[in-house]
Amino acid sequence: MRRDRGQAMVEFAVVVMVLLLLILGTLQFALIYHAKITLNYAAFETARAGAVNNARMWAMELAFSRAMAPLYTTPYVVEQGSECQSNFVLDSNRSTTIDFSLDNVKCARQRVRDMIAGDLVRITLVNPSAESFADFGYDNAGAETIPNDNLMYRSAEVKAMSGQSIQDANLVKVHVGFCYELIVPLVDQVIWRMIALAPNNLQPENFGPPRGGSFAEACVGANKANGEPRYGIPIYAQGLVRMQSDPILDTFCAGQCEDNS
User: Fold this and answer.
1) What are phi and psi of 226, to 5 degrees?
2) What is the DSSP string of the chain?
3) Cross-strand bridge partners of residue 173
4) How far from each other are the two terminal CA atoms of the chain, in whole angstroms?
């Protein structure tokens, strides 16, 4: 009938936004899942670097940068002079010119290091703790050190301050917070608002805002270099490895070492 003409178009107009959100949302959550898998591996590599480098924060931050670099490695960002810049060029045939080199990897690592310095990554050394050093540490040439040798022959007595034995104190455990930037249009703002804003009558699905002073608050409140909103969400991972060197009390940290996740 003539009055039914255009019915399919009206129905499509009704469902197209929902369908678009589902498709874009699926793509964005797939990217988040990929970032989480990469972060899990990076947390393990961070703990492993601490295990063989006296639980030094600088070594763990470098290891984290190496492990997270694949997330940002692209042939379109290269090192030019002392800076990394976009290198997206079209040739005369309108095809993309791609030259993959070590510079791409170096730029990806530098991006992660910049995120650490900018409080978009927070690596917390959970163990050995200050109490671990208080119970088992000794002065080794001016460095507070926990012995790592002959652990199987040492007493397994649990000390009161740390609640640990010396074997427990020789486990390196790190907690990593990573501020992942949402990049899929439309759903990036939807997901970000759910985390950053408090629920209201119009948006009851929101479950923010994050606790004041936490890493999550710093993540959702971060802006890009040009001042635009970054639309980041915090994801977390942990790594646990047996120490392979003497833990040394380290006060250096290029990022934020406080446990305010």
Assistant:
1) -90, 5
2) -GGGTTHHHHHHHHHHHHHHHHHHHHHHHHHHHHHHHHHHHHHHHHHHHHHHTTT-HHHHHHHHHHHHGGGT--TTEEEETTEEEE---B-TTSPBP----HHHHHHHHHHHHHHHHTTSEEEEEEES-HHHHHHH-EEETTEEE---TTGGGS--PPPTTT---HHHHTEEEEEEEEEEEP-STTHHHHHHHHHHS---SS-TT---PPPTTSHHHHHHT-B-TTS-B--EEEEEEEEEEE-SS--B-----SS--S---
3) 127, 240
4) 62
Which residue, chain included where needed, has tokens 């985390």?
Answer: 195
Query: What pLDDT is recorded for position 224?
Result: 83
Which has the minimum average pLDDT: 121-135, 184-198, 246-260?
A: 246-260
Q: Which of 162, 163, 146 is nearest to 154 (CA)?
A: 146
Other beta carbons within 10 Å of 154: 15
Any idea how long the chain is? 261
Q: How many CB atoms lie within 10 A of CB 76?
A: 16
The region, left, alpha or beta by phi > 0 then psi within -120 to 50, assigned to residue 215 is: alpha
Q: Indicate the residue type of 236.
A: Y
Give residue for tokens 């874009």: 24
C-alpha distance from residue 96 to each of 74, 76, 102 (Å): 13, 10, 19
* Residues facing 234 on adjacent strands: 179
Predicted structure pTM score = 0.83
Dihedral, CA of residue 165, residue 40, residue 113 and residue 256, to nearest 10: -50
Which single residue is written with the structure tokens 């119009």? 202
Residue boundaries of the structural domains of the chain: 2-128+170-242
Q: According to the model, what pLDDT value does residue 261 have?
A: 47
